[in-house]
Design goal:
By secondary structure, the protein is mainly α. Helix content is about 60%, strand content about 10%.
Length: about 120
């Protein structure tokens, strides 16, 4: 089993930009952005808690990847690269098929092709 954990880190500036964009939508729907905005006052506390959590739960078997997430395309690229690297490290390959099995598979193929549907 391969475990990779990703912490998508958005900067305070990007978070503010996204809140402002969402506030336009929320005005139309009538929902309040204040609970989220009020939590921004605890930014430093959250950052410390995230750092402690990551340090406490990162292992060689299940590492954390802290990924800058201000640019979604870049975030996706980093996550995809980490997944590809993890898969490459498994050294996966198709099983070898011996001659007898290949002959059997070829006979099945010919049988299927000869059948009329």
């Amino acid at each position: 089993m391969v475990i990779r954990k990703f912490f998508l880190h958005i900067s305070k500036e990007e978070q503010k930009k996204r809140f402002l964009e969402r506030s336009k939508i929320r005005r139309r729907t009538g929902s309040s952005p204040w609970p989220d905005v009020n939590e921004r006052g605890f930014w430093k506390d959250y950052q410390e808690a995230y750092e402690e959590m990551i340090q406490s739960t990162a292992t060689k078997h299940a590492p954390w990847f802290v990924v800058p997430a201000d640019n979604k395309w870049f975030t996706r690229l980093i996550v995809a690269s980490a997944i590809i690297q993890a898969l490459d490290e498994l050294h996966l390959s198709f099983p070898e098929v011996n001659k007898a099995k290949k002959k059997e598979l070829e006979a099945v193929r010919h049988s299927l092709l000869a059948q009329k549907d």
